[in-house]
Amino acid sequence: MQRYASEYTAETTVSTVDIPSDDVKGRIIGREGRNIRAFEKATGVDVIVDDTPGVVVVSAFDNVRREVARLALIKLIQDGRIHPTRIEEIVKATQEEMDKHILEIGKSALQEANVGLLHENLVKLLGRLRFRTSYSQNVLRHSLEVAFLAGMLAEELGLDGRLARRCGLLHDIGKAADHEMEGGHPKIGAELARRYGETNPDVLHAIVGHHDDVTVDHIYTVLVASADAISAARPGARRETLEKYVKRLEELEAIACGFPGVDQAFAIQAGRELRVIVNASKTTDDEAIKICHDTARAIEQQMNYPGEIKVTVVRELRAVEVAR
Predict the structure, then answer these.
(1) How far is CA 186 from each of CA 5, 53, 199, 260, rounded to the nearest angstrom?
(2) Nearest to 77 by CA among 29, 12, 131, 14
(3) Measured distance CA(316)–CA(314) in Å, rounded
(4) What CATH class does 14-98 carry?
(5) How many CB atoms lie within 10 A of CB 14?
(6) pLDDT tens, 69-90?
(7) What would be the CATH architecture of the domain defined by 242-315?
(8) Which DSSP helix (H) or strand (E) runs through 251?
């Protein structure tokens, strides 16, 4: 993990487009909203035009569609001719440019991983992963990271590093498929790879088996599964939702407060440490040590969390007198 540290960017579901003046907002909306309706129909996104000065917001869960809409809207603003026919022309031209851009991204990833040739359709699917996220992890960056980690693990074991990188690069290719295909991403990915000319049984097995959906009898599948787990567990690789995060901190404090003699508990360091304050008059030093041990064991048994959590119990006897 220290030898290979990759970048992570967490995409959101919203893009903003800067506009030169507020009268452009009126032209984007059009008479009785016809322009904005035509744009939303052509791109499949929501366009939010509110009182925020200088920006228009483009919202969609499909990152490819959202990027096409963002680029098309920028072109329309620069062009100045905003009407339904022109909107359709520019959106169509932008979609064609986006297809080329996706192919270039795929080729760049293939070259970076150095795994040999792939069918053009697989390269396009790789490029689409750049616009997909999983637990806010960019799936293409994750796939490249898994490729390099699996390659290094293979070389440590005297195996074929290039083959391991190929397995790792393609392991999540099923996530690029549209939602019309049935099944989980390992099954879909293996089917797509087979359809587009991938014949190596190690690669196909790594794609279909990296989540233990099938019996793992290929060493490269084990390496890819290990690299996948390392990549996902790297601190900062995945963002938790705020609600889950707050709930986890509340659970930590509740576990500690359940022990007799505990006055207060504070989860600090983003949930990496728990400070427990016990009542000095109700507990002894030995009891405080036991509370510390029991709290740590209770957290292990009752909660799921990344990394480790440090439990610190503080027993403080205060004597206060006032001189009058």
Answers:
(1) 25, 45, 16, 48
(2) 29
(3) 6
(4) alpha beta
(5) 12
(6) 989 999 988 888 888 888 899 9
(7) 2-Layer Sandwich (3.30)
(8) helix 242-257
